[in-house]
Amino acid sequence: MGYFRWGIGLAQAMLEGFVLSRQQTHNQGKFELCYWLKTEQGAVKAIVEGEQPVFFIRESERSTAQMRLNKASIKIRFSDIPLKHFDQESMVACYSDSVRTFHQAKQVLNSHIRLYEEDIRHCDRFLMERFIRGSTWVKGQVVKRDGYTLLRGAQFKANNHYKPVFSVLSLDIECDGDGVLFSVGLVSNSHKCVIMIGDPITDDVKASANTNYIVWANDEFALLQTLIEKVKFFDPDIIIGWNVIEFDFVILVERAQMLGVVLLLGKDEQPITIYKGNYVRVLVPGRVVIDGIDTLKNATYHFDSFRLSNVAEKVLGERKLIEQDDRLEEIIRQFNEDKLSLAAYNLKDCELVLAIFYKLNLIDFAIARSALTGLELERMGGSVAAFTNLYLPYLHRSGYVAPNLAEHGLNFESPGGYVMESKPGLYKNVVVLDFKSLYPSIIRTFLVDPMGLVEGLLNPEEAIKGFNQGYFSLKAHYLPNIVAQLAGARQQAKQDEDLMLSQAIKIIMNSLYGVLGSKGCRFYDPRLASSITLRGHEIMQTTKRVIENHGFEVIYGDTDSTFVKLPQTWTLEKCKATACNLVHEIDAFWRQYCESNFQLISYLEIEFETLYHTFFMPTIRGQVTGSKKRYVGETYVNNEAELVFKGMESVRSDWTEIAKKYQKEIVKALFDGKDLLRITKGYIEAVRSGEVDGLLLYSKRLGKDLEQYVKNIPPHVKAAKEQMKIDKNCRYRKGSIIKYYMTKSGPRVKLERGGLDYEHYIEKQIYPILMMMPDYKNVLFQLTAQKKFSF
């Protein structure tokens, strides 16, 4: 929705839209903020004038700062403001007319003066302080441009209702190991093309109608120029890809720079910009670049490998057109000998990425996350930045400036989540009771809050006592209210069946403790973090006693989950009814506890999560002590028995398929009372005979580049280095998945016929799993017994 009003001079427009990109720019020497928006009226470029970048210093350091800036001839405007530090000292705002002056001032002062909030870009601060998160109202003076509307003198206001519909373009490049481009694929809902270097193929058979999507280019220079034209034609709001930010766009920019091409991919033919720091940022004015891998991880999807081939097969049931391990070698061969096949491969990758995004609603997730946090659509991770975006505007309105890292001077570590010593064994009828969003509920119930800690320490008589000398104000706080708003929004999202919004809210809520417990967050204070985790310990231990007072045994507890053993003769119906009754009793206990001890409302809520009719908690391998975070249970799903593995080898990507298959079968045998010896002997014989060679592949990701491994080189790195000696076209980088076999010559990427070290697999993949089973010693003895003994 929006309207245009004509008056004297330029037209005035009031529009609602969604922020696509943000920049700090200069126009004729004046500092401006530039925001591109998606609106129902088309693309809008909104220019905000009259803003000034700002940071803060302490009042006691004003004169020193003025002296140093004057000496360096740097013009900064000092302004008295009604803001103070957490230690109650008054603060001073320092304004500059340009980004250049802003950074010069920071450089001059940084070693001598404590600067505050100097790391916040003003284009972010402008939106943050107005509570603008994705969608917004904007008004300004209209200047018509080719393909978009320019709004000068723009003014913004929060809008929580506008939901954009974005045009999406999937992009993928093919190149050699040195980044020399072969082709670029582009696919949208309505168009597709592959820009391929080479001469047009005129052979009637090869150049059939299904290859008319190929656009031929003489060389890389022509390819990049064609790419600019095609992106303008597709005119996407969002460009997606697989590792598209750190690979595809980095390669494109590097090749463009080498060839003297300016990549004008922005909405108004503005160049693309790459920023490299702790992570790579791609700025395409008026467009957003979103990576599929990062988005999947942030949406908490789990795959044993995030390679496109694996995700496409798991999500879509489709495969890439080149799947062999020496993929780069095949790509180079196809470019030299079979360009039509390479074009089809390039196009298919683009189509797979687009299909994954739509099948899993990843664009909806990115929109929901941006609308909740105010972060850019493409910004993945960034929990600390999201917390700052949410919290800082409230803090300023209460008269505080955010502190710098570790200014509290405390260096003790806050403990992690509560993990109870397990009681290993094989059980019948184990119910799992989970506290819903335990840490957010603790924050909300016990008023844990950064500003609340400051105010609570100033007025402990009007505060609730936390842990490690922490006190939290009963009245001055914001985080509990933020949690309450998120919880209410999630409940509404569930009712509306908006799964992506619900998931985005869940992730943000669960990240709040992690942020407060992160030393990289300006609000980190061990009293905050420990007042959450230690309260969690108290809640879990007390809940255990409540359950035991009802006559039941607790065999394990982990962070927010409690495992309760019920009588093995009970029916499933009686177990479920008892679990529901325990939920009612526990919730009632905490309501009464919080009211009588703190005069607080309890938002702690436990729920009956699972009933395992058979449950196995192993010991630590080779010991009698119970393990932690590792168990397997059998439950009924749609009236069919299903094994659920947690923390076991069968759900870990760095164990072989033979180990996973063996563990599932031997656990099932244990639950069914079958012979473990027979099953184990069968697997050992299958390994030694060579009939399961295809299941002996290890898979491990490179945590860093190969050359950084110097000491204690792990097997997957040895395999990668050996393969690169053999195949000069082979390239492995940080993040690459190395698949290898253990041969008699050591770890190798290629399977050597007859050269596999079968005894290694038996000792490292079969026996360790067997040794977690009850009575494993008897089975192991029979497997390894010798014919002769001496006493």
TrEMBL record:
PROSITE patterns given in the database record: DNA_POLYMERASE_B (PS00116)
User: Where's the DNA-directed DNA polymerase family B exonuclease domain?
Assistant: 115-311
Domain DNA-directed DNA polymerase family B multifunctional residue range list: 392-764
Give GO terms: molecular function aspect only: 3'-5'-DNA exonuclease activity; DNA binding; DNA-directed DNA polymerase activity; nucleotide binding
**Catalytic reaction list:** DNA(n) + a 2'-deoxyribonucleoside 5'-triphosphate = DNA(n+1) + diphosphate
* Residues annotated as signal peptide: none
Q: Could you say which enzyme class this protein belongs to?
A: transferase
Q: Does the keyword Transferase apply?
A: yes
GO BP:
DNA replication proofreading; SOS response
Entry keyword set: DNA replication, DNA-binding, DNA-directed DNA polymerase, Nucleotidyltransferase, Transferase
Q: Extract the SMART domains matched here.
A: POLBc
Concerning Pfam families, the annotation shows: DNA_pol_B (PF00136), DNA_pol_B_exo1 (PF03104)
What EC number(s) are associated with this protein in UniProt?
A: 2.7.7.7
Segments traversing the membrane = none
List the SUPFAM superfamilies hit by this protein, alphabetically. DNA/RNA polymerases (SSF56672), Ribonuclease H-like (SSF53098)
Cited InterPro entries: DNA-dir_DNA_pol_B, DNA-dir_DNA_pol_B_CS, DNA-dir_DNA_pol_B_exonuc, DNA-dir_DNA_pol_B_multi_dom, DNA/RNA_pol_sf, DNA_pol_B_thumb, DNA_pol_palm_dom_sf, DNA_pol_type-B
- What family, per the record? Belongs to the DNA polymerase type-B family.
This protein is called DNA polymerase
| Gene name tied to this protein | polB
